[in-house]
Amino acid sequence: MKLAETVTFGGSALDRAAELRGSAQGQPQAGDQVILLWRGKILVDKAAETPLVRLRLPQPLTVGAPWVFLGQEAGQRIFAFDISSWSPNDQDLPPEGAFNDPSEQYHPELAKGLRFCELRSYMTALSPRDAELSATAKAMFHWHASHRFCARCGAASDSAQSGWQRVCPRCSASHFPRTDPVVIMLITSGQNVLLGRSPHWPEGMYSLLAGFVEPGETIEAAVRREVLEESGIRVGSVSYLASQPWAFPNSLMFGCHGEALNTDITIDPDELQDALWISKAELNDIVAGIRTDILPARAGSIAHFLLQHWLADRLD
Fold first, then answer.
1. CATH 3.30.450 fits 4-87+97-147+165-175, yes or no
2. What is the pTM of this model?
């Protein structure tokens, strides 16, 4: 797919400068750029044309905070710091179990107007570079928070290699960031596309079917298995279209096109609340807001990206 890397979180070509990791140049220094995260949220200036806030070190808030070296841009090093240990007082906190967190938090030591906001809410407003920086930082800090102990001996591990590795001080085992492969499928039958709905999504929202790739399984096999399990639709030809890093929390989405061999839907209620076929004409009405009983996939997601290109006949 020629436009594959124009998907949100793709196409930035960030110089990650992996050769600097673990060296003195891969350590935060005065003058380096820094982005701040708090509990997975990014710091944004809501009034700015480019909302992601980039600060300069030193910053009092970063003292003692976990950090990751993200890369460099025009010779300027960029780091991310996680200040999740800060507890905001008398502010709205993230609602538990919400699909999207609408709450915003501000730090009294930062400039007025700066807020910690959910990345989902700002991902389409970010430049490709800022989107890549944000998604990388969010995924890395989630990995660090969920892999604090050695999987071999259980001892607390330490961050190493400028945040890109964890090392066990007891048994010397090394652990590296994990990314979960997920297939997301544009399944078509002529001029119709298969959409599904999970019960925890916002009311009326439908999207493409998706699922994790299992060990020992190809992407194509995963597409066929997941679609059959969830909807009872058998899939023939499968082709790869595009990929998207998805930091919610640590996935790499493989967007594929599959051709349906049957159209009778039998959903697995443990996986889907509903599934249906939608024609191009109907989907156009949904996207245009003419039809309101169904909400389209969220803008910025690879599902939205693939459906838009299918509507425009740009899958090649």
1. no
2. 0.94
